[in-house]
Amino acid sequence: EAQVTQNPRYLITVTGKKLTVTCSQNMNHEYMSWYRQDPGLGLRQIYYSMNVEVTDKGDVPEGYKVSRKEKRNFPLILESPSPNQTSLYFCASRMGHLYEQYFGPGTRLTVT
Amino acid sequence: DAKTTQPPSMDCAEGRAANLPCNHSTISGNEYVYWYRQIHSQGPQYIIHGLKNNETNEMASLIITEDRKSSTLILPHATLRDTAVYYCIVRVEADSWGKLQFGAGTQVVVTP
Fold first, then answer.
1. Is A58 helix (H, G, I), strand (E, B) or coil?
2. Chain A residues touching B43 at Cβ < 8 A
3. Which residues pair with B92 in a beta bridge?
4. What residues in B contact A99, CB-CB < 8 Å?
5. Which of A56, A96, A104 sits opposite B96 (nearest CB)?
6. Is there a contact between A110 and A42 (Cβ–Cβ < 8 Å)?
7. How far apart are CA A34 and CA A4, in angstroms?
8. Lowest-confidence region among A3-7, A65-69, B99-103
9. How distant is the Cα of A80 from the closest Cα of chain B, in angstroms?
10. Sign of the CA dihedral B59, B32, B109, A43?
11. Distance between start and end Cα atoms, chain B
12. Residue B53 dihedral angles phi and psi, to the nearest 5°
């Protein structure tokens, strides 16, 4: 089954404790993105990647890092999480010239 | 990308057609109309897209007015599982890095 998976689905952590949210897709998509969703602000793009070793900032990249060492994986790294990064996070992938994005199930992160 | 306007909410009876309007009066000639939906905190799901012709797939139909300033998503036989927030998005297809600008959307509630 074609899908985007994220882990963990739920995470509660404390300020300053480094964490990684993994994202993996099995569709051989070139393009991958990370979004965060907050009430009243909608979905906002954090980072995106056009291919292996090619990444760039989205609209709200501060406090986040990403890497794309393999085509299928696009982890989101929070080196020093803060409470304002409490949010619902979605990973998405897309084949270069096709239309739709496939979204993962989401990761609900709470930073206390 | 052009801005879209959607009603904040609408109700629909199960088994009836749901007609979701979207205004995009500033749309330009190379911008497509996309529809996604998000079922309570799940990852957004692609529904359909079009440029100027009406489109139909297994999920829905998309009717775009001749001047392209508005469109309607039609769910032909709404079910309770169609309860979701529906997003109308306008974007240039050549935007290959795939950012989607989600607005507030329309909360659709399908009732028995």
1. coil
2. 4, 90, 92, 103-106
3. B31
4. 32, 34, 46, 49, 93
5. A96
6. no
7. 12
8. B99-103
9. 25
10. positive
11. 37
12. -90, 155
Using one digit for the tens of pLDDT, what is the confidence trace for B60-91?
999 999 999 999 999 999 999 999 999 999 87
Beta strand A107-111 with A10-13: parallel, antiparallel or unpaired? parallel
DSSP B103: -
Identify which of B60, B64, B66 has the alpha carbon closest to the alpha carbon of residue B82. B60
Check if the beta carbon of residue B5 is closer than 8 Å to that of residue B57. Answer: no
Find out whether A109 and A89 touch, Cβ atoms under 8 Å.
yes
Q: Convert the pLDDT of each residue in A16-64 to its tens digit.
A: 999 999 999 999 998 999 999 998 888 899 999 988 999 999 889 999 9
Q: How many residues does chain A have?
A: 112
> In this structure, which amino acid lies at residue A56?
D
Q: What is the DSSP string of B38-89?
A: E-TTSPPEEEEEESSS-EE-SS-EEEE-TTSSEEEEEESS--GGG-EEEEEE
